Amino acid sequence: MRNLILAATAAPALILTLDASPALSAGLEIDVTGQASGTITIDLFEDVAPLHAAQITALAAAGAYDGVVFHRVIDGFMAQTGDVQFGRTGGDLSMAGMGGSDMADIPAEFSDIPFARGIVGMARSQDPDSANSQFFIMFAPGDFLNGQYTVVGEVTSGMAIVDAIKRGAGQSGAVAAPPDVMAQVRVTD
Q: pLDDT of 111-122, one tens digit each?
């Protein structure tokens, strides 16, 4: 089950310690439609989470994220998307959040970058090495995630769009129809 963001601790597979802020290089532009409408720009931290950044970039370049919904959105916490298997508009979204991609799961690349507002993290199951295609954007700090989930990037513009994403219900954060959609996701330099 990939739609879980867990607070439970598990032995981390890899902890990276950084002496400075992560270098920025490749990124994403995400055109969002629905209740929220506009473009979110994300810089990927290729030096901090190279395997995760490479997988997200490959999926975006292939168009795999185009038409994928924000399926789990918890007010004051985060907005989750990226289920390229079950999260596409026009299909049965009852399984959204349960799938991934055809690519292999990625070993954890934990760092000491805190989960602050605008940070992008990789969703996973209880297994630290189970991230695949799903990611989440933080609405507010989530220190309980620090060292437990891979930080893969940061929103550099469009946080007002993130803030406008349709919220889900209750603690599950399941979004009722119609959810907001990543209409198009482009890779940037």
A: 999 999 999 999
